């Protein structure tokens, strides 16, 4: 298993990218998932990129952003071109986005077809660059449940469209993540790992709260102390040939929690040779 930190976890902290890379290296991570806005803000400092990160024995696992599917085609493709260039500079072929801004049940036929058309354009573009577009399983998008996600993959029908499987949000949708990964694993290129104390506290992950510096963090817990059974899930994905995942922590004490969770993930991975060899 290749495990990454997410730079978004440090969105309210005064740490440099150098400090984050040093932390990731020290705590045994293999990669960094770079938030799009962070990559954009580093764009004019050519010291930073894939070669620089390699000096820490790290790689960029994914560039995570939010492509504007609702914008004009010209604006959307301009943003795609920017992200493609940044991904190339940082040495990753994975760009993460969301599939719209409305849940699948609240999206009508015409709206869904429009999103499918945009994702087809983007998949064709990124595919031509040797890159992949990953739609994240997330509430209030077309990938808010397993069936809609599988339908979307079939509708877009392009090999460059992949899935960032957020375990918590799959669980939130009402399906066991183990059952879900058994159905969708051929399309999964990355995982997000995070946890919650109980189902009735999931609203802490709503964007208007989780991105706010003064937002509540109540219910956010370390990976193996929450409602989602990650020991069971790691056992299930141990058969997969390649597993790349990011620890997505939005709560306090970021470094302490990430260090603790990464150690526990590594300890469990030792039980499964296929995970430990990656």
UniProtKB/TrEMBL annotation:
It comes from the Bacteria. The keyword Ribosomal protein does not apply. Coiled coil: none annotated. Pfam families: AP_endonuc_2. The keyword Isomerase applies. Keywords: Isomerase. Residues 24-253 form the Xylose isomerase-like TIM barrel domain. InterPro entries: IolE/XylAMocC-like (IPR050312), Xyl_isomerase-like_sf (IPR036237), Xyl_isomerase-like_TIM-brl (IPR013022). GO terms for molecular function: isomerase activity. This is Sugar phosphate isomerase/epimerase.
């Amino acid at each position: 298993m290749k495990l990454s930190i997410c730079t978004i976890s440090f969105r309210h902290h005064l740490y440099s990218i150098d400090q984050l890379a040093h932390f990731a290296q020290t705590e045994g991570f293999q990669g960094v998932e770079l938030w799009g806005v962070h990559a954009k803000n580093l764009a004019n400092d050519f010291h930073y990129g894939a070669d620089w990160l390699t000096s820490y024995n790290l790689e960029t696992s994914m560039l995570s952003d939010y492509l504007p599917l609702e914008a004009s085609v010209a604006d959307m493709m301009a943003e795609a071109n920017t992200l493609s260039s940044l991904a190339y500079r940082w040495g990753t072929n994975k760009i993460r986005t969301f599939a719209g801004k409305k849940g699948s049940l609240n999206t009508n036929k015409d709206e869904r077809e429009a999103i499918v058309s945009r994702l087809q354009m983007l998949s064709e573009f990124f595919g031509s660059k040797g890159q992949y577009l990953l739609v994240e399983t997330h509430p209030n998008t077309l990938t808010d449940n397993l069936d809609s996600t599988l339908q979307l993959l079939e509708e877009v029908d392009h090999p460059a469209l992949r899935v960032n499987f957020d375990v918590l949000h799959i669980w939130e949708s009402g399906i066991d993540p183990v059952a879900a990964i058994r159905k969708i694993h051929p399309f999964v290129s990355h995982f997000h790992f995070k946890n919650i104390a109980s189902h009735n506290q999931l609203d802490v992950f709503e964007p208007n709260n989780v991105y706010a510096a003064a937002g509540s963090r109540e219910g956010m817990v370390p990976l193996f102390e929450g409602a989602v059974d990650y020991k069971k899930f790691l056992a299930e994905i141990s058969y997969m040939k390649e597993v790349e995942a990011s620890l997505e922590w939005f709560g306090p004490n970021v470094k302490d929690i990430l260090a603790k969770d990464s150690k526990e993930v590594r300890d469990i991975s030792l039980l499964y040779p296929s995970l430990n060899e990656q």
